[in-house]
Specification:
Blueprint lengths: L2 H13 L10 H8 L5 H9 L8 H4 L22 H16 L7 E4 L4 H6 L7 H4 L2 E5 L7 H14 L2 E4 L5 E4 L4 E3 L15
Parallel strand pairs: 3-5
Antiparallel strand pairs: 1-2, 2-4, 3-4
Length: 194
């Protein structure tokens, strides 16, 4: 096999290495959306020029434990949270434009407070009071560029950046902070700049 074919094969395997959250796909979203009002939310995203930054079926995913908690697999954030939605999506758009967040899958976004409790979310979680996303990166992706962005620009963005033992990355614009596996800044893969 030629060197070019090997490279193409390696690239193809790398692109297919993105972890998938669960069965909440486009078909399931279409079923859910038929019974739920999403148009005002979509119009807000279009007006803000943020529609498509994250696929809508991922952007409206609730907690990954939705099934265990007997909750809805998707949720539209209340309109009071929409300024935070715009802020967090603008951050994701900037990270993507700078090549720092290429391939990713949003596995959890807005959570109803009851679902957040059932899913063992933090008591004052940005998923409930503002707007946060938990993302999966491909296995080959290096999260350190996100850390460097947080160190250099996180305060200006009011950016929260966390990494869980599962490998999920949490992003929000609800406060300049970082944390790691045990929930504290001390366990973060990002150190505050000195």
């Amino acid at each position: 096999m030629s060197r070019t074919k090997w490279r193409l094969l390696a690239l193809s395997l790398a692109l297919s290495a993105t972890a998938h959250a669960d069965e909440r796909d486009l078909w399931m979203f279409a079923q859910w959306a038929g019974d739920h009002q999403t148009r005002p939310f979509r119009e807000m995203l279009v007006d803000a020029r943020l529609y498509g930054v994250v696929p809508i079926h991922q952007l409206l995913r609730s907690a990954s434990d939705w099934k265990l908690c007997h909750a809805s697999p998707f949720a539209v954030p209340p309109a009071s949270n929409w300024p935070a939605v715009r802020s967090t999506l603008s951050l994701i758009q900037t990270l993507s434009a700078q090549g720092l967040l290429r391939q990713f899958e949003v596995v959890s976004a807005y959570r109803d407070p009851r679902l957040n409790v059932c899913a063992s979310g933090a008591a004052n979680s940005a998923h409930t009071r503002a707007f946060a996303v938990d993302i999966l990166l491909p296995a080959w992706a290096d999260p350190n560029p996100l850390c460097r962005f947080w160190q250099q620009h996180g305060q200006a963005w009011n950016m929260g950046l966390g990494r869980y033992p599962s490998g999920r990355i949490h992003l929000d614009t609800a406060g300049y902070r970082t944390w790691g596996g045990n929930g504290s800044a001390d366990s973060s893969f990002c150190a505050r700049p000195r």
